[in-house]
Design a protein that fits this description.
With 338 residues, this protein is mostly helical. 60% of the residues lie in helices and 3% in strands. Strands 1-2-3 form a 3-stranded antiparallel sheet, with no helix packed on it. It is globular, with a radius of gyration of 24 Å.
Length: 338
């Protein structure tokens, strides 16, 4: 048996409890080991690095046609991160993932192998968003640390993070990976302003208070003050483990089920947070915000903004559009001459 095969079997045995809840990890690690055997690397653990992971993704994308979407690639990487975290922890092999920009690596894989992005998942009604926030606020406000257990505290922490994520997304609808990587130095004026995609966004007082309280809570738990280069969500979750943006979908699904806000798909363990962002963008479009401004804050191209979020505009806006176009033209000096 090759060294990496033995490492895999040890991982499957020692992490059985965790893998029972993540069966996809087993499949992806098996795929990786199979690729190593093809490349004659299964007995050479020191020769394996992130370039091999890159090549493995390319193999299953281009040769096997089994890895075609971003979501599948991200699941593959999550499995390998878990596998190598175990190997490093047990001293079986050097962890090849700790000292790199995980999000940047994923984005490079998406572009390099032209992986399919997830289909946009619609949006919520304004009333639904308010209901989500009200339930989060109430559950967080009712939490009693003295009367809670470990699972209660974990749920409390998840909802603190989810509430901040949702509120920031609603006022600055950038991509999830941009929001989750916000650093402490991106805030200004005592957390009253936030720099996102080179736009300085005003933070409502309620959200500012939520952020400050969450940081204070985390500083006490972490026994260290937050630093400028610390990522906000990573720091808040640090004392519990490694924060991953993908977890937001699971936490969001739990909130939807716990408070019976609306019906998700039966049997699903996750519910995407993307509709929160879509809601904010759609409302900006409905309020006739300049698409150029929407493109800047969201990071979405102008053509995509127009095609996706203005396609629902109907005749009720025609008079408004005509009036403003004519007003803009009439403001030019040559108009008087004409």
């Amino acid at each position: 048996m090759d060294i990496m095969e033995k490492c895999r079997d040890d991982y499957f045995r020692d992490c059985e409890y965790m893998l029972n809840n993540k069966p996809s990890y087993v499949s992806h690690v098996n795929k990786f080991i199979a690729y190593l055997k093809i490349m004659d690397l299964a007995d050479r653990p020191k020769a394996i690095d992130r370039n091999i992971v890159d090549a493995c993704i390319g193999y299953y994308r281009n040769e096997k046609k089994e890895l075609n979407a971003r979501a599948t690639m991200e699941a593959h990487l999550e499995a390998l991160k878990s596998f190598y975290d175990y190997l490093g922890r047990e001293g079986k092999a050097e962890d090849i993932f700790p000292d790199y920009d995980y999000q940047d690596f994923k984005e490079k894989m998406v572009k390099k192998y032209e992986l399919l992005e997830p289909v946009e998942r619609g949006s919520f009604e304004c009333e639904e968003v308010i209901e989500i926030l009200k339930n989060l606020d109430q559950s967080i406000g009712e939490f009693s640390y003295e009367e809670s257990g470990i699972r209660d505290e974990e749920r409390y922490l998840q909802r603190i993070i989810l509430r901040i994520f949702v509120k920031i997304t609603l006022i600055a609808p950038a991509k999830r990976n941009v929001i989750t990587r916000i650093k402490n130095k991106d805030f200004e004026d005592s957390y009253k302003k936030l720099n996102v995609n080179s736009v300085k966004v005003n933070i409502p007082s309620g959200l500012s208070r939520d952020i400050i309280n969450a940081i204070r809570y985390a500083e006490e738990k972490n026994s260290v003050e937050i630093e400028d280069d610390d990522e906000l969500f990573e720091f808040i979750y640090r004392y519990k483990g490694n924060f991953r943006g993908e977890s937001l979908n699971t936490w969001f699904n739990n909130v939807i089920k716990d408070f019976n806000i609306f019906n998700g798909e039966a049997g699903k363990k996750t519910y995407p947070v993307e509709p929160i962002r879509n809601t904010a963008i759609q409302m900006m479009a409905d309020n006739m915000v300049n698409p150029v401004f929407i493109s800047k804050i969201t990071g979405i191209t102008f053509s995509s903004i127009e095609a996706q979020y203005y396609k629902s505009q109907n005749s009720q806006y025609e008079e408004y559009i005509n009036r403003n176009i004519n007003r803009a033209i009439a403001q030019n000096d040559y108009y008087y001459y004409i």
